[in-house]
Amino acid sequence: MKGDDDVILVHDIKQGDEQAFNRLFDKYRVPVYSICYRFIRNEADAREITQDVFIKIYRNISKYNERAKFFTWLYRIAVNTCISYKRRQKSHIPYHESIGEQHVDPESLHDKIIARKIIDEALMKLPDRQRTALILRHFEGHTFKEIGEAMGITTGAAKANHYQAILKLRDYLKGLI
Amino acid sequence: MIDCSKCSQLLLDFCEKTVNAQLALDISSHLEACNDCRQAYRKILEVYQILDQDAVDLPSDDWFESVKALAKQPALKKKSSRYFAWALIPAAAAAAMILLVFISRQPKTFEIEVPASFLLEDNDIASLTFKGLIDDELIADLNGLEEWAMETNEQMIFDMSAGEQKTFVKKLTEMYLIGT
Ligand SMILES: [Zn+2]
C-alpha cells in the first residue's frame, strides 16, 4: 500500500474515484473495527457500528478538511458513533456485581474466560473518554497530540484521561494482578 | 537522585516512555533501590500486560467486503435495527445530528472547555493526577456536562419541524464554517 497517502486518496474519492475509497477502506478497516470493538466490547454491535462509520465516511467525505490528519477525523467519527450507539441502547444492561475481586489463575481455561470477563467489565466501567484515550494510546499507539485531535480535547486532557484510565484499571483488574 | 514522591509522580510518564533519558535513568535507579516504588511500578506494568492480552477477533474478509460495498450505496437502508430507527426521521435531522456530533467536539462550542483546557493543559499531568488534583470526579463532571449538552442538542433536533431543522443546520453551517 506504498504511496497510498491519505490526502491523495481523499482527494481522489472526492473526485468520485471508487478505487480510492476501496484502498482507504482496506487501510482502515482493522483499526476502525478494533476501536469499535474495544469501545463497545461486543462483536455484533462492533460490526454494526463499523458499518455505520464507513457509511458516514463515504457520504461525508466532502466535509473532511484536509488540514487535519485524516485518521483523526475518521477516529472521531468512529468514537462518536460508538458513544451515540451506547446512548441509544435503552436496553443496555449494566454489569452485575463485580467479579473483578475474584482471584484468577491465568493458566486455567475456565479462569481465562473469567479473566476475559474481568477485562471486559473493567474497560466498560471506564468513562467514555478515558476508555477512548486508552484505546487510542495503548492499542492503536497514537501520540497524545493525535488523540487530543481525534477526541476534540487538548493534548493534556488526552493524557489525563489515559492516565486516569490506567490508574482505575489497576484497581478494577486487581483480581488478575 | 529522586525521592519516592517524585518517583511516584513520574511513574506513568516513565511507563509511557515520555520522560527524557536522564530522568528515565534516575527513575530506574530509584526503582532498583526502593521496594515500595518497585511494587507500584510492577502493578502498573501488569495492567499494561493484561491489556496486551486483550485480542480482537476480526470479522472475515467477506464481511469487510460486504461493508465496503454497502458503504458506497448512499440510498441503501439497513434492515430492522433499533439503532437505525433514527434513519427514518427526515434527512435534515440526521444531517444535523451528524454535524452536531462534529461541532460539539470542537473546543470553541463549549464554554466549559475553556477552563477545563486551562486546568488540564499541563506538562506534568501525571503528577497532578497522583496528587489528586485531577481526579476522576472532576473528569466525570466535565464529561457529564458535555454529554448533557450533546444529549440536549440531539433531543432539541428531534423536536424541531422539518423547516426549523433546515434553518438550524444552515445557521450552524455558517456559524462554524463547516466544510470550508
Ligand atoms: Zn521510592
From TrEMBL, chain A:
It comes from the Bacteria. Gene3D superfamilies: 1.10.1740.10, Winged helix-like DNA-binding domain superfamily/Winged helix DNA-binding domain. One of its GO terms (molecular function) is DNA binding. Residues 117-169 form the RNA polymerase sigma factor 70 region 4 type domain. SUPFAM superfamilies: Sigma2 domain of RNA polymerase sigma factors (SSF88946), Sigma3 and sigma4 domains of RNA polymerase sigma factors (SSF88659). Signal peptide: none annotated. Residues 24-90 form the RNA polymerase sigma-70 region domain. GO terms for biological process: DNA-templated transcription initiation. Pfam families: Sigma70_r2 (PF04542), Sigma70_r4_2 (PF08281). The keyword Transcription regulation applies. The keyword Transcription regulation applies. Keywords: Sigma factor, Transcription, Transcription regulation. Belongs to the sigma-70 factor family. ECF subfamily. PANTHER family: RNA POLYMERASE ECF-TYPE SIGMA FACTO, RNA POLYMERASE SIGMA FACTOR. This is RNA polymerase sigma factor.
Automatic annotation (TrEMBL), chain B:
The chain crosses the membrane at residues 83-103. Keywords: Membrane, Transmembrane, Transmembrane helix. Gene3D superfamilies: Anti-sigma factor, zinc-finger domain (1.10.10.1320). The keyword Transmembrane helix applies. InterPro entries: Anti_sigma_zinc_sf. This is Zinc-finger domain-containing protein. It comes from candidate division WOR-3 bacterium RBG_13_43_14.
